Amino acid sequence: MGDSEPEVNPYSDEEIGAAAVQELPYQYIQLEIVNDVARLTMNRPPYNVLTADMMTEMARAIQSLSEQPRVRVILLQASPQCTAFSAGIAVEDFRPERAFQTIEAMQSVFDSFLEISKPVVVVVNGPAIGGGCELAALGDILVATPKARFAQPEVRLGVYPALASVILPHIIGHKRALEMIFTGEPLSAQDALRLGLVSRVVPEEKLEEEVRSLLSKITDQSAPVLQMAKKVLYETIGLPLAGALKKSVSIYLNQLMDLDDAQEGLRAAVEKRKPVWKNR
């Protein structure tokens, strides 16, 4: 018998990716892939209180996006029906009999965000409290409106914020992180901008336009180059300067230079034209 004809896939990569996402049933979030952007919307009105089930859904959604090569950037936001970005974890879920399940779900969603190689843009248009503040802090770029507030009030419940205690000192410095955690007092959007937690503050009426422009600038770039740049920034955090530089140069020479897109970008610059990315 002769060789059989190879199967031709009638669907585009975008259609396959969208279908894979649609197969996953979500109750508390929405996940939509449009062009190169994956929009993850928290949808548990009115305050997006985080439950173990909701956090498990979020972790599953983020993990599914790791296998979507066409997705260049992830957008995390709250549904317009919600008056808060997230009010954090429900108080009853801090009780000892539920703490293990809650912490396990929280660790799962936080790990998913920390491990995802794709850029994550977070939009905060309201209070981000407790676990909601920690979620926002995981974003690579955080866009806020003047309505945003950021607080870690866990100390008032007799506990401390497990993730914020580790990640906030890297972002806003030890002294201000300690003040946030010791007092539970919120940061305004402008204070968060000044301290480096927020990337930019924009008027609410211009939020959609600003986010669209930001996403467009990111999706214009090569997906693997974006991922490699993020990898270098995160893997060198906390390293001594000499060690961080050595690691960055090693990745640049031994991994980045192997990418077709790195060659194309340099070639396009010499030829004075816009690069045509192959995303490999």
Describe the 3D structure.
By secondary structure, the protein is of the alpha/beta class. The chain folds into 2 domains: 13-219, 2-enoyl-CoA Hydratase, Chain A, domain 1, CATH 3.90.226; 223-270. It is 46% helix and 13% strand. The protein has helices at 13-22, 52-65, 96-115, 131-137, 164-172, 174-183, 189-195, 207-219, 223-235, 241-254, 260-270, and strands at 29-34, 37-42, 73-78, 120-124, 127-129, 141-144, 149-151, 187-188, 200-201. Helix 2 (52-65) runs parallel beside helix 3, helix 5 (164-172) packs across helix 6 (174-183) and helix 9 runs antiparallel to helix 10 (241-254). The longest helix has 20 residues, at 96-115. The model is unreliable at 1-22 (pLDDT under 50).
Topology:
Layout lengths: L12 H10 L6 E6 L2 E6 L9 H14 L7 E6 L17 H20 L4 E5 L2 E3 L1 H7 L3 E4 L4 E3 L12 H9 L1 H10 L3 E2 H7 L4 E2 L5 H13 L3 H13 L5 H14 L5 H11 L10
Parallel strand pairs: 2-3, 3-4, 4-6, 5-7, 6-9
Antiparallel strand pairs: 1-2, 7-8
Helix pairs in contact: 2-3, 4-5, 5-6, 9-10
